[in-house]
UniProtKB/TrEMBL annotation:
Protein source organism: Sagittula marina
InterPro entries: IS402-like_dom, Transposase_6_like
Top-level taxon of origin: Bacteria
Protein name per its UniProtKB record: Transposase
Annotated ranges, domain Insertion element IS402-like: 7-68
Length: 68
């Protein structure tokens, strides 16, 4: 994958207070989702073109939507 983006543990720790808490069904890992959202935005891709290791494309979009 060209231009993969990874968040460090320190960066994730700073973002943790802003992430919603899980209620009920286990959430897709926040680290995977955030790096996926950044990857999509940096590369100008459609949500469905997100790498699978970043989580389901619908999850990426749904987590990004409130922040736009």
């Amino acid at each position: 994958m060209p231009d993969l983006f990874w968040l460090s543990d320190a960066q994730m720790a700073r973002l943790e207070p802003y992430l919603p808490k899980s209620h009920g069904k286990p959430r897709v890992d926040d680290w995977r989702v955030l790096t996926g959202i950044i990857f999509i935005n940096r590369n100008g891709l459609r949500w469905r073109d997100a790498p699978r290791e970043r989580g389901p494309h619908k999850t990426l979009y749904n987590r990004w939507k409130p922040w736009r």
